[in-house]
Amino acid sequence: MKKVLLVDDEILIRETIRDTIQWEQEGFIYCGDASDGEVALPMIEQYQPDILITDIKMPFMDGLELSSFVRRNSPDIKIVILSGHGDFEYARTALRLGVEEYCTKPISSADLLQTLRQVSDKIDAARLEKLEIEQLKLEEKKQTGLSQSKLLNDLCSGFITTSEAVHLSSKLNLNLLSRYYVVVTADFRKLAPSDSAPDGISEDMKQAEHLLNLKLEGNNHLVFKRSKTECVWILKYESQEQIKQALETVQQVQNQSMEHLSYSISVGIGSVQDRMQGIHVSFLEAMEDMHWRRLSRQNRHAMLESRNGSFEQSLFLDRAKFVEFLKIGSPAHADTFIHSFASTLQHTEWHSSLIGYYILNDLTLEVFRSARDSYPNIANFDMTLQELQKTIELIRTLDESRTYLIRLAEQYWQWRSEASDKHGDMLIKVKKYIHEHYDKDYFSLQDAADHVNLSSGHLSKVFSQENGQTFIEYLTQTRIRKAMELLQTTQAKSYEIAFLVGYNDAHYFSNLFKRVTGMTTREFRKSGQLSKDLPASEREEHKGFVSYS
């Protein structure tokens, strides 16, 4: 229903209009009436009418002055002028003020009601239009948010090149350029196994997620939701000192979350990178870090439950001390160190309690997390962990626990020895496979991973770390380089060359070629020579994207 307020200095007219129209039956609410504009002002403020009916000639404040005031301060109120004056100047002034209707007296109740219905229809149309505009703006904002999240997700996942990321981010008015980058991931979930499926995030976990968002808010942080329980932040700063301060804040959140036992906040931190292409590597490292922290937290929660809620930090072995020995110690000193280190386990109840399992499993998870950080190219990682956890289950004496710790140390040193190889043979095989199949438009990271019997995630991480560029960037480099050769050595059309180097979209190929080389295909063909390097301007703009060798 629309609210109506009447202003007229003639009481008879006010009473006639008020009493001859069945207001509610006609879809209106009669708020009241006033004898002049000055009296009407507080009523307008109080009732906020949708329609104002006002006479023109009134004492103190006439209808035109009142209309002018209402138009400035309450533009949504529709104004209907009632006037006994037929002077054209009055009508013109009223129209200039934006009144909806200008009616001359006398006017019948039926005519006035018809006018009110017309004005009511205009109000409905205006409100509908406003709602549609707001919905469009909301949808546009939502789509922009989705586009930004997809861009950041693709960048972290290594699905797009640096050049493409810069190009797409400019369309979204998103500033990706910075001197240093580091990725932080966080997983928010309940600890109990029965509650691990994220059907919904409890309110306290939402508050924890919001708190971390607040600590990481600002122009230096880009965030997107990777899943219902996982958030990813890309931190970008101009100095390593700024990066260090930001990561200290993140670490504080990680440490504080140890106090919450009904749910977990597992925070993962990747390495600091000085190129945009390194975001992918930092992301993979952060995800690995987050994974092992979550396993460790679940293990400690299980230990807490086994002790009926009694939690003593001294029950656990000194993880930092053990890992430090693995990094700087040697097998010759293993027996002596571990004999002393494991002395705290002498009172452990191996037969009647699972406490020994949780203590050793906690240390094992920390060793694995440290090994993953130091030697990221380890294969069969999860399988080795499962084998060691089965061994822990069989331990029943202090001597057996010491034997296990020696085996754990030997496993770490074996990884350290194997890491020197750096997967050289495997990467040579992958690159050879790329050069043999780059011309297939369906060729992907998964194809290469299947060829060398690795997971796509593991291959992507190894490839990026060992080559200084992502898999997709190397593939793009190979394709563009071959396109450059074909442009200089054949008369093939641009769209034909696009197809020959693995692109089924000639328009996309042309845009990509120009972004990478700084020239269109036609300009490059006219240049008359096959340069082994990209133009200097392109190298500076997308540092590290492509360097031919």
TrEMBL record:
<feature type="modified residue" description="4-aspartylphosphate">
    <location>
        <position position="55"/>
    </location>
</feature>
<protein>
    <submittedName>
        <fullName>Response regulator</fullName>
    </submittedName>
</protein>
<keyword id="KW-0963">Cytoplasm</keyword>
<keyword id="KW-0804">Transcription</keyword>
<dbReference type="InterPro" id="IPR018060">
    <property type="entry name" value="HTH_AraC"/>
</dbReference>
<keyword id="KW-0597">Phosphoprotein</keyword>
<dbReference type="InterPro" id="IPR011006">
    <property type="entry name" value="CheY-like_superfamily"/>
</dbReference>
<dbReference type="InterPro" id="IPR001789">
    <property type="entry name" value="Sig_transdc_resp-reg_receiver"/>
</dbReference>
<dbReference type="InterPro" id="IPR051552">
    <property type="entry name" value="HptR"/>
</dbReference>
<feature type="compositionally biased region" description="Basic and acidic residues">
    <location>
        <begin position="535"/>
        <end position="549"/>
    </location>
</feature>
<feature type="domain" description="Response regulatory">
    <location>
        <begin position="3"/>
        <end position="120"/>
    </location>
</feature>
<dbReference type="Pfam" id="PF00072">
    <property type="entry name" value="Response_reg"/>
</dbReference>
<feature type="domain" description="HTH araC/xylS-type">
    <location>
        <begin position="428"/>
        <end position="527"/>
    </location>
</feature>
<dbReference type="InterPro" id="IPR041522">
    <property type="entry name" value="CdaR_GGDEF"/>
</dbReference>
<feature type="region of interest" description="Disordered">
    <location>
        <begin position="527"/>
        <end position="549"/>
    </location>
</feature>
<dbReference type="Pfam" id="PF12833">
    <property type="entry name" value="HTH_18"/>
</dbReference>
<dbReference type="InterPro" id="IPR009057">
    <property type="entry name" value="Homeodomain-like_sf"/>
</dbReference>
<dbReference type="Pfam" id="PF17853">
    <property type="entry name" value="GGDEF_2"/>
</dbReference>
<keyword id="KW-0238">DNA-binding</keyword>
<keyword id="KW-0902">Two-component regulatory system</keyword>
<keyword id="KW-0805">Transcription regulation</keyword>
